[in-house]
Design goal:
Layout lengths: L1 E6 L6 E5 L1 H18 L5 E6 L5 H16 L3 E7 L8 H14 L4 E10 L2 E8 L7
Parallel strand pairs: 3-4
Antiparallel strand pairs: 1-2, 4-6, 5-6
Amino acid sequence: MDLVEIAPQAKPPVCKIIDHGKFLYEQQKRDKIQKKKQHVTILKEIRLHPNTDTHDFNFKARHAEKFLEEGNKVKVAVIFKGRELAYKEHGLELLNKFIEAVQEFAKVEQPPKFEGRIMSTILAPTKIKKKS
């Protein structure tokens, strides 16, 4: 048996006479259960090009919907190559169209912004599907 300080912040500090090994084991068990219950958000990325066709666009939008339903955030990036850089407005139109396509599943966390050759936005899920 050991004298273990349970609550050092309390006035006066709380101590108990217990088996220290058993106390540590139970504390680790509680921490493990808490860690198991917390939800970790993952950032998934979907890449598009300014001249992405409608079928490919719809395919990627469905993937984004699936990611958002699982509770993950989605980064949608439009990548410009070569002379495509002269038509940045096509990329912005594409991102706005994408946001519109998944608006019932997501809200815009970061509006579209341009960095180097990539224009991107981040979407967060509006509702998270519960795992049974």
